[in-house]
Design brief:
By secondary structure, this protein is α/β, with parallel strands linked by helices. It is built from 19 helices and 14 strands. A hairpin with a 2-residue loop joins strand 2 and strand 3. Helix 3 packs across helix 4.
Length: 577
C-alpha cells in the first residue's frame, strides 16, 4: 500500500504515530535544560489529554527564570525538538523538514491573479458595532477599551501611531504571504483594502476561493494564488516544497503570516510546516518578516497594570460573588492573580481545546520570540472573537453571551481582524528590538479582550457566564467601556437573574462567510466544539466549505478525528489550513 506523503509525526518502535507522544516529548525537551524536574513531570504524565495544561503553564513559569531570559532558552529547545522529530514522508523514505525543503518539489504551481476594483483606503477606519470609527471617535474607543482593561495601553498607543501616520497603510513595498488566506481573523481583506499585494495560501476548495476572490475583487490591491488544477490552492502538508518554490518566485520583501488552523493532530503538523517554510524563506531572503496572531486562551506572564487592575476588581467584588465562591468550596470565582507579584501569571487555557491546539500555538510563540532577536516579527495577542466555529456551539455561544458580566468583551470578526491588521502595520513600520525578558515582548500590544484584567480566574468564572448566557434573550451586550456596561468590580449577577440595564444580553452571531479557515478562541471553562475522541484532539465545527474541522468528503484533505490515544491517523492525511 503506498504511503501518504507529506508532513507527519515520528513513528515509535511499533510504527504508531502519536500526536500525544510527540507533544509530550516536545514540552519535556523545551523544559529540560532550564527545569529538569518540570521536564520529568511532563514525561511522566499519563493522561496528556487532561493533564497538559499544567505542563504548558510550567513552560511560561520556567521562562521567567534569569529575569525572563530563560524564555529564549525554552523557545530554542522547543523548536529544535519540533524540527528534529517531525518527519516528511515520501516513497523513498522519511526526512526532516529541512531536508525535504532542499529536495526538488514534487509539484510546481502556476499563478492566478485577482485585481481589486476599488480605490485604496488612505485613512484608518475600524468597524465597530455597526459604525465605522475614525479619527477622534476611534481614539475615544481605544481609550475606553484601555480603561475597561480590554486591551493593553501599548495596543492603543500602537493604533494611535498608525492613525497619525496613514501613509504606513500603503504596503506596496512588501508582499504578504497569507498562510490560511480564508480565515476570518486574518488581515487579507484589510491589506487588499489598503492596496497591498497578497500571496494567498489555502486549500484548493472551491468555496474557500470563492470567498477569497470576492474579497480581492472588492478591494484595491492584488491577490495572487498558486494553482495546479481546476481550483486555486495548495496543501502545506503535502506540497510544502512546491509552495516554497512558488513563493520565492516573487520579488521584494516578504511577510509570512501564519493564520492557518486545522483540527486535532493536523494543527501541530501545520505549525511545523509553516515554521519550516518561514525558516526556508528567511534563509533565502533574510529580510523576510514573520507575523502571528496569538490566542488569548493561553498562559501569559502579564504586566503590573493588569495585575493591579484585576486585584482592585477582586477586592471590590460584591456579596453574591463571595457567596458563590463560598458555596462552591472555592472552585468558582477564584482570583485571577492570588497575589501582587509582577509579572502576574494569567492562565486562560481552555482544557477542551486540547494539547494539539496548545502546542501549535506555542510553536508560533517560540518562533516569534527567536525571530524578534534577529529579524522583524509581528506578534500580538488577539481578542476572543465571535466566529462561526465558536457560536455554532450552543454552550460556547452562551459563554460568550455572558462573558461581559465578568469584564470580558467578545469581538466581532470584522473588528478583531481589522484591529490586528493595524497592529501588523505598526509592527512592520516600527519594529522593536527584543528585550531581555521574552515574556515582556509577548505582552506588548495585547488585545486579550479583558482576560488579563478580569477579577476572576477565567476557568472559575466563565462557566457561570455560560449559564447566564443560556437564559438571556438575544440582544447585543453593551461594550464593557460604555456607560451602560457593568461597572468594574461590581458584584456578579446570579446566573438566573433577569437582565438589567447594566447587562444587556447578546446578539446571536451572524454566519461566517464560507471558506473561513480559523475558528475563534474558545472561552475559558467552556466546552470545545463537538465531542472529543478519547485521548484525541479537540475538533471543532467547520464552516461550510472551510478548512476547519469537520467531516471530509472522499478525497478531501481535512483530517478526520484523532483515534484513541491521541495518535494522528497513520498515514496522516494532507492537512488543512
Amino acid at each position: 500500500m503506498p504511503i501518504r506523503q507529506g508532513v507527519d509525526f515520528p513513528a515509535d518502535e511499533t510504527g504508531r504515530r502519536s500526536s500525544t507522544a510527540f507533544g509530550r516529548a516536545v514540552v519535556a525537551d523545551a523544559l529540560r535544560h532550564v527545569d529538569p524536574s518540570a521536564a520529568a513531570a511532563a514525561e511522566r504524565e499519563t493522561d496528556w489529554r487532561r493533564g497538559y495544561p499544567r505542563h504548558f503553564k510550567a513552560l511560561v513559569e520556567t521562562g521567567l527564570a534569569d529575569d525572563g531570559a530563560a524564555g529564549y532558552e525554552l523557545a530554542e529547545a522547543g523548536l529544535a525538538s519540533v524540527q528534529a522529530r517531525i518527519r516528511y514522508r515520501r516513497d523513498d523514505g522519511e526526512f526532516t523538514l529541512a531536508q525535504a525543503m532542499m529536495a526538488a518539489p514534487g509539484r510546481s504551481f502556476d499563478t492566478i491573479e485577482v485585481k481589486g476594483s476599488e480605490r485604496p483606503e488612505t485613512e484608518v477606519v475600524l468597524p465597530y458595532r455597526g459604525e465605522l470609527l475614525r479619527g477622534d471617535a476611534l481614539r475615544r474607543r481605544l481609550d475606553a477599551w484601555v480603561t475597561a482593561g480590554v486591551i493593553e495601553d501599548s495596543c492603543a498607543e500602537a493604533v494611535r501611531e498608525v492613525i497619525a501616520s496613514p501613509d504606513w497603510l500603503d504596503l506596496s513595498d512588501q508582499t504578504l504571504v497569507a498562510a490560511g488566506a480564508g480565515t476570518e481573523m486574518g488581515p487579507v481583506g484589510a491589506v487588499l483594502g489598503w492596496g497591498g499585494t497578497v500571496l494567498a495560501l489555502d486549500l484548493p476548495r472551491e468555496r474557500v476561493w470563492q470567498r477569497v476572490e470576492s474579497i480581492a475583487a472588492g478591494g484595491a490591491g492584488r491577490l495572487l494564488a498558486p494553482v495546479s488544477g481546476d481550483v486555486p490552492g495548495a496543501d502545506l502538508l503535502s506540497d510544502l516544497g512546491g509552495i516554497a518554490q512558488w513563493v520565492l518566485g516573487f520579488d521584494g520583501r516578504l511577510i509570512l503570516g501564519n493564520y492557518v488552523y486545522a483540527p486535532g493532530g493536523a494543527y501541530p503538523l501545520l505549525a511545523a510546516a509553516v515554521d519550516a517554510l518561514g525558516t526556508h524563506l528567511r534563509h533565502h531572503r533574510n529580510d523576510t518578516a514573520l507575523a502571528f496572531l496569538a490566542t488569548p486562551t493561553d498562559v501569559y506572564a502579564t504586566p503590573a497594570a493588569a495585575v493591579v487592575h484585576s486585584r482592585e476588581r477582586y477586592a471590590s467584588r460584591g456579596v453574591r460573588s463571595k457567596l458563590t465562591a463560598a458555596v462552591s468550596g472555592g472552585r468558582l470565582m477564584r482570583p485571577n492573580y492570588p497575589c501582587d507579584e509582577v509579572p502576574g501569571l494569567n492562565d486562560s487555557l481552555v482544557p477542551q481545546q486540547g494539547p494539539n491546539y496548545a502546542l501549535a500555538k506555542r510553536v508560533h510563540r517560540w518562533r516569534a520570540t527567536l525571530t524578534r532577536r534577529d529579524g522583524v516579527v509581528s506578534f500580538a495577542v488577539a481578542p476572543p472573537t465571535r466566529t462561526k466555529s465558536v457560536t455554532s456551539n450552543r454552550l460556547l455561544a452562551a459563554a460568550y453571551a455572558g462573558a461581559h458580566l465578568f469584564d470580558v468583551e467578545i469581538f466581532e470578526p470584522e473588528t478583531a481582524s481589522k484591529l490586528m491588521a493595524l497592529l501588523l502595520v505598526h509592527q512592520l513600520r516600527k519594529p522593536r528590538p527584543a528585550t531581555r525578558a521574552a515574556w515582556a515582548d509577548e505582552a506588548v500590544a495585547a488585545a486579550h479582550g479583558g482576560l488579563w484584567h478580569t477579577a476572576y480566574h477565567p476557568r472559575t468564572a466563565l462557566p457561570l457566564a455560560a449559564v447566564r448566557g443560556l437564559v438571556l434573550p438575544a440582544s447585543r451586550p453593551a461594550s464593557l467601556a460604555s456607560p451602560s456596561a457593568s461597572p468594574s468590580g461590581s458584584s456578579s449577577p446570579s446566573p438566573a437573574a433577569p437582565p438589567g440595564p447594566s447587562s444587556p444580553s447578546p446578539t446571536p452571531p451572524g454566519p461566517t462567510p464560507p471558506g473561513s479557515s480559523s475558528p475563534g478562541p474558545t472561552p475559558p471553562g467552556a466546552s470545545s466544539p463537538g465531542p472529543t475522541p478519547p485521548g484525541g484532539s479537540s475538533p471543532g465545527p467547520t464552516p461550510p466549505g472551510g478548512s476547519s474541522p469537520g467531516p471530509t468528503p472522499p478525497g478531501g484533505s481535512s483530517p478526520g478525528p484523532t483515534p484513541p490515544g491521541g495518535s494522528s491517523p497513520s498515514p496522516t492525511p494532507p492537512g488543512s489550513l
